[in-house]
Amino acid sequence: MATSRNGKIKVNRKKGGRNSRPLVGFIILAVLVVAAVFLIDGLLNQKRPEKKPEPPKVVARHKLPPRESAAEKEPVVHEDYTATVVPPPTERHVRPRPAGSGNLAIIIDDMGKGMQEARSIIDIGVPVTFSIIPGLPKVRQVAQEAQRRGIEAMIHLPMEPKGYPERRLEENGLLLSQSNDEIVVRMNGYFKEVPQAVGANNHMGSAFTENKEKMAIVLRVLKEKGLFFVDSKTSAISVGESTAREMGLRTASRSVFLDNIQDVGYISKQIRQAASIARKRGSAIAICHPHPATIQALAAELPKLRDEGVTLVPASSLVH
Questions:
Q1: Taking a C-beta distance cutoff of 8 angstroms, is the pair 280, 71 a contact?
Q2: Quick check: is 207 in a domain?
Q3: Which sequence ranges are marked TM in the entry (predicted)?
């Protein structure tokens, strides 16, 4: 401390002392703010539950359905068809096939178009009967092959159907408008083409077989030749079988048509139906045609029927 010239006391201060006070205050305030932040964060962390990490998400392009047992699977639908998933054999309830005896004749109509279909049917290896339409391209060859392989042959008589001429018929067919002599001439022409024939049945003929007078002409020629007649029953009121019996001609009628629908499953079912009739009645006659689906069904079913006890026989065995 010093005395000035005028007698006042002069106080000495350190340089910069007045400016240091705000700095100290600022530092203290900053420390307090930082302490407060840590304190608040600690309190919040104590109350907040620990968040468990989520499992990683798997992203797939296609979502797969849950697995199903074979018995629970639904039909698989495609754009153009529906296919049913078939359970494994160990999980399927398979009904036992019926067994029992019975005589079954299978007549294949419309034969004579080609040799390949004839050989395919013969190669099944069971007795069947070919019914050959006169006038078709391979009539003689099919008849000769059938004879060589032990297959019975018949003449498939083309006869006028209802709705003729809108409904087509072979040019050599038998018509109600023809004279009795013309019918006899045409019948004799058939035998020249198929001399191996042992019998005959009607091709179409829903109108012709209802006319007893015209049928009598046809049946008389068959009797003279020693042939039998099988009524294809294209009309529910056909007089073919009844007239043949009156004339003393060996005869029988068709029991089942196998291939009105050209589907293997349907035809197989019809074959089984024919076999069932044979078991119940002792015999049955089934008629079909050489369609690809029919040949496939015959090849699959006929050997099985034989193994089950059904006797496959030529048509001549079932006429009386």
A1: no
A2: yes
A3: 23-44
Whether 24 is covered by a domain: the verdict is: no
Q: Domain of residue 276: give its range.
A: 116-318
Q: 252, 241 in Cβ contact below 8 A?
A: yes
Tally of domains within the chain? 1
Rounded CA-CA distance 136/113 in Å is 6
Contact of 286 with 274, CB cutoff 8 Å: yes
Residue 31's φ and ψ, nearest 5 degrees, are -65, -40
Which residue, among 111, 304, 197, has the nearest Cα to 119 in the 3D structure?
111
- At 101, the pLDDT band (50, 70, 90 cuts) reads confident
Which residues in the chain belong to E strands, given as ranges?
2-3, 9-10, 76-77, 82-83, 102-111, 129-132, 152-159, 199-204, 228-231, 251-253, 256-257, 283-288, 310-313
In a domain, 91, yes or no: no
Asked if 295 and 128 count as a contact pair (C-beta separation under 8 A), the reply is no
Give per-residue pLDDT as tens, 69-79: 433 333 332 23
DSSP3 helix / strand / coil % (the chain, rounded to 5): 40, 20, 40
Any idea what the CATH number is for the domain that residue 135 is in?
Answer: 3.20.20.370
Residue 6 lies inside a defined structural domain of this protein: no
Look over the chain and give the mean of its residue pLDDT values, rounded to a whole number. 82
| Each residue's pLDDT tens digit, 16-62 | 445 556 565 666 766 676 666 556 555 555 545 445 555 544 444 44
